[in-house]
Amino acid sequence: DTGVSQNPRHKITKRGQNVTFRCDPISEHNRLYWYRQTLGQGPEFLTYFQNEAQLEKSRLLSDRFSAERPKGSFSTLEIQRTEQGDSAMYLCASQGGQTNSPLHFGNGTRLTVT
Amino acid sequence: QKEVEQNSGPLSVPEGAIASLNCTYSDRGSQSFFWYRQYSGKSPELIMFIYSNGDKEDGRFTAQLNKASQYVSLLIRDSQPSDSATYLCAVKAYSNYQLIWGAGTKLIIKP
Fold first, then answer.
1. What does the alpha-carbon distance between residue B101 and residue B5 come to, in Å, rounded to a whole number?
2. Is A58 left (phi over 0), alpha (psi -120 to 50) or beta?
3. Closest by alpha carbon to B83, among B62, B61, B57?
4. Phi/psi at B9 (nearest 5 deg)?
């Protein structure tokens, strides 16, 4: 069990550029979540997949954000036309078993938009 | 609006003492409760989860749940400097998959 893997660990980009992050969940976990976290705050929900189906997307999420999980395994999160306010830690978590089971987080991708 | 409240701290505790972290939640339908530890610049790491009223112990950690008072706590016995971190409380309602997160309590263990 290699845990949840996220790449890259760090990303620095200029405002207006597009960025894509990848998450590889724990292999037997069918549920996958993306969160965003800024300093001093708890994780903020972005979106949720069960297998390949995207079941929920935060109403607070701009149309510049899109996520996919094409084969129900790894997932990608893309941010188009990045803004300085997008600077944050982007966390991926996977979950197996019952829906009340704990989430297991990856190491996160820290995005800095200059 | 479902909310989870935590004192932001910092909570300063001498090494070897008991650290007590508290969390209140607003949704009476909440069924599952989680404590995560987060070191600066790192991702959250699961410490404990609890589903039923009462106490649940795991090593130096004890989670306490009181659904009537909508209150969950985490006790850390024999606190170590390595316990210094931010502790996040997360609550899940029965009716949906989402976790509602508190903003975390920063814990400092003083040698």
1. 8
2. beta
3. B61
4. 75, -155
β strands within A1-114, DSSP E: 5-7, 10-13, 19-24, 31-37, 44-50, 53-57, 65-68, 75-79, 88-95, 104-105, 109-113
Helices (H), chain A: none
Q: Show the CA angle centred on residue B46, arms to residues B44 and B50, nearest 5°.
A: 135
Which amino acid, one-letter code, is at A85? G
Residues from chain B that touch A55, judged by Cβ atoms under 8 A, are: 97
- Measure in Å the smallest separation between the Cα of A17 and chain B Cα atoms: 24
What the block records as the tokens of A101 is 């089971």
> 56-95 in B: which are within 8 Å (CB) of A?
88, 90, 92
List, for residues A49-86, the tens digit of each pLDDT value: 999 999 989 887 789 999 999 988 999 999 999 999 99
Q: Are B37 and B101 in contact (CB under 8 A)?
A: no
What the block records as the tokens of B87 is: 């502790």
pLDDT tens-place string over residues B1-12:
779 999 989 999
| Residue where the block lists tokens 């909440």 | B30
Q: Is B101 on the interface with A (CB under 8 A)?
A: yes
Interface probe for B, chosen from A56, A100, A101, A109 (most Cβ of B below 10 Å), is A100
State the amino acid at position A72 in one-letter form.
G
User: Is B98 within 8 Å of A42 when comparing Cβ atoms?
Assistant: no
